[in-house]
Amino acid sequence: MVDTAGLVVVDKAPGMTSHDVVARVRRLAGTRKVGHAGTLDPMATGVLVLGINRATRLLGHLMLTEKAYDATIRLGSSTTTDDAEGEVIATAPTDEVTEEQIRATLAGYVGEIDQVPTAVSAIKVDGKRAYQRVRDGEDVVLKARRVTIHELVVTDIRGPEVDISVRCSSGTYIRAIARDLGTALGVGGHLSALRRTAVGAFDLARAHTLEELADELSLVSIAEAARTTFPSIDLSEEAASEVRFGRPLDLALPTAAEHALFAPDGEFLALYADRDGRATPVAVFVG
């Protein structure tokens, strides 16, 4: 399996870290060159995209900026981590909270918002992860970040539990939505369940459990991943030869985004972007 290259879309089980998943896939693929795009907390389940061998170079370029989640918020209790893994630090009755209040408050989070990340995040503060500072007993207050929540749908309300489905930009913390909802309603709140249903173009329909991958290591080829994720351009053989050497092309790209360039036979060659009216290499994957 050492020459295997491509993406693996995993349906992560609860209780595992993203690093645990990487370690398992390294064994299955027979290579140490495995990376992942976007971390999932141990309590979370769902889509985790991994790259194997040459495909790890693609991970940093993949436009996996939009993510989708199904989540459950529990109102009436706040925790140290803003999720069910933390210690409860405050409780309050939720009898007076109405469904209308819940829906109206959550509707206000749709669009571009300034969100304060949860303190137990992987964000670095003076070179040290925020979650490590919290574990070391430090009081961590992170700066608000601009994120985009494209869609937030309330799918069910069962007493203090609120089920939501969210489509959002990368960097959005669903735990922070739970925390902020509880704060706004005056009763506290935390995330009690989280399942990521999509990362970019890769959703649960394309995901496999680690048990399934142990039976068959299902890969998305680099070419398919690039064509699925980026605007694509099929080149002539002459232009493809230039790209193999990483040369700019006198080619007007349709948008400012990175574009995937392909040879006439369908081979994925490189990612190019516009620079002063010319298509210029960002990353070349052949040669």
The SSE string, one letter per element, is EHEEHEEEHEEEHEEHEEHHEHEEE
Task: Please indicate the percent range of residues in DSSP E strands (runs of 2 or more).
Answer: 35-45%
User: What distance separates the N and C termini?
Assistant: 22 Å
How many H/I helical runs? Answer: 8
What's the helical proportion of residues?
10-25%
Shape: elongated
Radius of gyration: 22 Å
Poorly predicted tracts of residues: none
**Helix/strand/pairing class, anyone?**
alpha+beta
Biggest beta sheet summary: 9 strands, mixed
The count of β-strands is 17
Provide the residue-averaged pLDDT.
91
Characterise this structure.
The chain is an alpha+beta fold. The chain has eight helices and 17 strands.
Key terms for this structure?
17 strands, alpha+beta, 9-stranded mixed sheet, 4-stranded mixed sheet
Task: Give a brief outline of the structure.
This protein has 287 residues and is an alpha+beta fold.
Could you give the topology of this structure?
Elements: E1 6-12, H1 18-29, E2 34-37, E3 45-52, H2 56-59, E4 66-75, E5 77-79, E6 88-91, H3 99-107, E7 111-115, E8 124-125, E9 128-129, H4 130-135, E10 145-158, E11 161-169, H5 174-185, E12 189-199, E13 202-203, H6 210-215, H7 222-229, E14 232-234, H8 237-244, E15 259-262, E16 268-275, E17 278-284
Parallel strand pairs: 3-12, 14-15
Antiparallel strand pairs: 1-3, 2-3, 4-11, 4-12, 5-6, 7-10, 8-9, 10-11, 12-13, 15-16, 16-17
